[in-house]
Amino acid sequence: MQSGVLCHEVGDKGAPEEARMLGFVGQFQHTLDAKGRLILPARFRAEFERGGHLSPNSEGCVALWTPGEFARQSEERLTQARSGGSAERQQARYWAANSSDVEFDKQGRFALPASIRDYAQLEGEVLIVGALDHVELWAPGVFDRMVNPAEHAFRQGSDE
User: Fold this and answer.
1) Domain 23-66+99-156 has CATH 3.40.1550.20
2) How far is the C-alpha of 70 from the C-alpha of 6, rounded, in Å?
3) Closest Cα partner for 56 from 124, 129, 113, 127?
4) For an engineered disulfide with 62, which of 67, 98, 114, 137 has Cβ 3.0 to 4.6 Å away?
């Protein structure tokens, strides 16, 4: 089963020919095990059959990227570093130095390096959140502080 919203392209006979993912959606809560591993929700696993990549993300969470999206993000950061100043190069270095490859076992578990766990304050319970083009891993308290306040603006239809 693919995660997110699916679009089906209809062939000449009216039958769906191909499905493509439009985004990772939903949120789940799982617990880190004693070895620092986390279980990826089953609905997200199909997109990570070839593995994935972890990287520090803004606002204190960790991003889990598919191989294709990680390549796109890497290219984008490289372009910014080459055309930017010292701050852009330093951010690109930090991102690259703290990113890592991920492999999943048959149960959908993957290891989070200690540096990634420390960056996002991940211990015990972890929120696994679909963020359209990637999956985010959050400490529940950080998520409550950083993301939940957006609910008010969302309800108000804010276009800020």
Assistant:
1) yes
2) 21
3) 113
4) 137
* 5 CA to centre of own chain: 16
Sign of the Cα torsion 55, 58, 61, 66 reads negative
pLDDT in tens, 31-50: 999 999 999 999 999 999 99
Q: H/E element holding 136?
A: strand 135-138
Work out the number of other CB atoms within 10 angstroms of the CB of residue 21.
16
The contacts of residue 51 (CB under 8 Å, 6+ apart) are 67, 101, 102, 103, 104
Q: How confident is the model over 82-114, as pLDDT tens digits?
A: 999 999 999 999 999 999 999 999 999 999 999
Instruction: Find the length of the chain.
Output: 160
